[in-house]
């Protein structure tokens, strides 16, 4: 990474850090872009250049969140189905307490659920993630543009991850530790993927 890119990355991280600090202290809806810019000692335009949506200052995981399932399927090993790859990917993420699947800490979880704007933005994340997954499934199975199967499969896989994400937030707000949440999510994930197995076990095998 060149010096210019390093400086841009540092600026982005500073903005994100200061925004999170302010959001946790005052609540997402009470903090303005101007407040974040002042705290990060940058211009308002700099903030919006890095984060076009205010919600993305709080949910600074958009790219990884949206692309995660599609990448997991695209990178699966030979002989693996999409279902097997996604189950493995989720269980590994739960074991490492990955924020992308909902590990966030009680302060952050409360901030999210208390803000209609953040809840709505998260809903968009989930929808974009399903679209990205459907695109990869269609490409790798050679589906025609009017074949609904990739979208149907993506909706099923995405629905499982959506429920698990919400469960992670709920358990966090209920005071469970990350280890307790990880154990519970892993059990629920196995149940959920087992429910999908009869229909999707042999779908999109590499």
Automatic annotation (TrEMBL):
Q: Which residues bind DNA?
A: 32-51
Q: Name one Pfam family in it.
A: TetR_C_14
UniProt cross-references to InterPro entries, sorted A to Z? Homeodomain-like_sf, HTH-type_TetR-like_transc_reg, HTH_TetR, MftR_C
Keyword set, alphabetical order: DNA-binding, Transcription, Transcription regulation
Instruction: Locate the coiled-coil region(s) and give their ranges.
Output: none
Q: Which residues form the HTH tetR-type domain?
A: 9-69
Protein's UniProt keywords contain Lyase = no
Could you tell me which PANTHER family the record lists for this protein?
Answer: HTH-TYPE TRANSCRIPTIONAL REGULATOR BETI, HTH-TYPE TRANSCRIPTIONAL REGULATOR RUTR
Its protein name is TetR family transcriptional regulator
